[in-house]
Amino acid sequence: MKEVFALNKQDKLILLVGIFFTALFVSNVVSVKLFTVGSVVLTAGLLTYPLTFLITDSISEVFGKSTAKKVVLIGLFTNLMMLVFFFGAVQLPPAEFWGMQSEFEMIIGAVPRVVAASLIAYFLSQLFDVHLFHKLKQATNGKHLWLRNNASTSASQLLDSTIFVTIAFAGTMPLGALVFMIVTQYLVKLVIALADTPFVYMTVKWLENKDKDTDTEESTYVS
What we know:
It is found in: Cell membrane. By secondary structure, this protein is mostly helical. It contains nine helices and two strands; from the N terminus they run H-H-E-E-H-H-H-H-H-H-H.
């Protein structure tokens, strides 16, 4: 039983990438919904999207910049595929007895703009995050993971929030509300980024932990 669930380093990478894509896809779909905490308006994608930065920072730390960039690029491609499939699903003629076409179009049809905003924000902010993380890694000689994680994620989340909210919601609300939404989105993401630091350390330690039974055939990764 232990051998069935034992994971080598490559298996762990595959698992992390799977979680990364899941968080990314869910974020794009649920970001259509806005919710309020007091007077603060937030997108539901805020619940899952910060997880993607935790994962890319962990992958960057253990497997290198090249692997992290590949994950980001594949994420972009798979999201484009999702957008095409969503469009196709909306265009299919509904069955006569099915009375939910308008609701389906309202939700899935609203996703393309959100996904387009998310794709642009995702691509630019994630690549910036990977780049800055490794610049800081060089500057700190591979030390102070907490500093690299928080600094790169905080800066990239500001870029992400500004691009995403502007593209996804410009014209749907007053300018003041739009700016307030960007600021509040970023502040919440900043708090989450600071809170995820222990989990980055845990993930990196888990990735680097070698099991004598599973890591004997482990692949070599080149940054």
